[in-house]
C-alpha cells in the first residue's frame, strides 16, 4: 500500500504591528516611571505667646533655685577662714592653760584657792550687811523700832520661799502639799513673825489672755489653798529670767 505524505505546515505571515500597538507599551512605561506624589508631613501647631512666656518664666525660676542651692552648699571662703582662726585661738588658749597648770607649783595653787575663798567670804559679809540694813529700814518705815543700832533688837529673820510653778503643774503642787509643804493653819502659823516669819508660796504669773480658763483655774485653787503668789508677769518658757526678777521684787516688797 502506498501511503500519502503528511501535509507540511505552511508558515503564516506575522501580523503587522500598527501605531497603536507601539504606543501602548510606551505609555505603560511612562506611567510606571512617573513618581508618586510624596505624602505631606503634618506640621506642628505653633506655640502661643502665653505658652512661650510661661516656659521662659519656669526656666528662670528653676535657674534661681539651683543657683541658690549651690550657694548654700558652698559657704564663702571668708567664713571658713574665720572658723579656722577661731579653732586655732581656742586650741592656743587650752595649751596655755595646760602649761600654766603643769608649770605651777602647789603653793601657788593654794594661794589662788585662798584668795578665791577670801573673796567669797567678803561677798557673804557684804550681803549680810545689806540684809541687816534692809531689815532696819523696813522696821523704821513700819514705825516699830526706829533707827536703832542693829545689836539692840533686830526683827527675826523674814524668809520668802518661792516655788516656781506653771498652769499645767497641779499634780506637782499637790505632791508637794502632801509631802513637806504645810497647809491651812500650819502654813498661816508659819508665816507669823512671832513664830518663824517664813512665807512659802507657789509663784505664778498670768496667762497671755488675762481672765481666761487658765487664770480662773489658778484663782479657784488659790482660794482653796491660800498658798499662791501671783506676779504681774506673763507666763512663758522663754520668760523665766523676767519671772525671777519679778519674784525677787515682789518678795522684797512683801
From TrEMBL:
Catalytic class of the enzyme: transferase
GO terms for MF: galactosyltransferase activity
Presence of the UniProt keyword Acetylation in the record: no
Localization, UniProt: Golgi apparatus membrane
Broad class of the protein's primary localization: Golgi
Keywords carried by this UniProt record: Glycosyltransferase, Golgi apparatus, Manganese, Membrane, Signal-anchor, Transferase, Transmembrane, Transmembrane helix
Keyword ATP-binding annotated: no
Pfam family, any one: DUF4094
Domain called DUF4094: residue spans: 48-139
InterPro entries found in the cross-reference section: DUF4094 (IPR025298), Glyco_trans_31 (IPR002659)
Topology relative to the membrane: Single-pass type II membrane protein
Co-factor requirement: Mn(2+)
Annotated Gene Ontology cellular component terms: Golgi membrane
Transmembrane segments: 47-66
E.C. number: 2.4.1.-
The protein's annotated pathway: Protein modification; protein glycosylation
Family to which the UniProt record says this protein belongs: Belongs to the glycosyltransferase 31 family.
Name recorded for this polypeptide: Hexosyltransferase
Organism: Panicum miliaceum (Proso millet)
Amino acid at each position: 500500500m502506498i501511503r500519502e505524505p503528511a501535509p507540511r505546515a505552511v508558515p503564516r505571515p506575522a501580523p503587522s504591528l500598527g501605531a497603536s500597538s507601539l504606543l501602548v507599551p510606551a505609555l505603560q512605561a511612562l506611567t510606571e516611571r512617573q513618581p508618586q506624589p510624596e505624602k505631606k508631613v503634618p506640621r506642628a501647631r505653633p506655640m502661643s505667646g502665653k505658652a512661650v512666656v510661661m516656659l521662659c518664666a519656669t526656666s528662670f525660676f528653676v535657674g534661681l533655685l539651683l543657683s541658690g542651692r549651690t550657694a548654700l552648699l558652698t559657704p564663702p571662703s571668708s567664713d571658713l577662714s574665720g572658723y579656722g582662726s577661731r579653732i586655732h585661738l581656742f586650741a592656743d588658749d587650752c595649751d596655755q592653760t595646760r602649761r600654766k597648770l603643769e608649770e605651777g607649783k602647789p603653793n601657788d595653787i593654794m594661794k589662788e584657792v585662798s584668795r578665791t575663798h577670801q573673796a567669797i567670804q567678803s561677798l557673804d559679809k557684804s550681803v549680810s550687811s545689806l540684809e541687816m540694813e534692809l531689815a532696819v529700814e523696813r522696821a523704821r518705815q513700819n514705825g516699830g523700832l526706829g533707827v536703832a543700832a542693829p545689836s539692840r533688837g533686830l526683827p527675826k529673820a523674814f524668809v520668802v520661799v518661792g516655788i516656781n510653778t506653771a498652769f499645767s503643774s497641779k499634780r506637782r503642787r499637790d505632791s508637794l502639799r502632801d509631802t513637806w509643804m504645810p497647809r491651812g493653819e500650819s502654813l498661816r502659823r508659819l508665816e507669823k513673825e512671832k513664830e518663824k516669819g517664813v512665807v512659802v508660796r507657789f509663784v505664778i504669773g498670768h496667762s497671755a489672755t488675762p481672765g481666761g480658763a487658765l487664770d480662773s483655774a489658778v484663782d479657784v485653787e488659790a482660794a482653796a489653798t491660800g498658798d499662791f503668789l501671783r506676779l504681774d508677769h506673763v507666763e512663758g518658757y522663754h520668760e523665766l529670767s523676767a519671772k525671777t526678777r519679778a519674784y525677787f521684787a515682789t518678795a522684797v516688797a512683801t
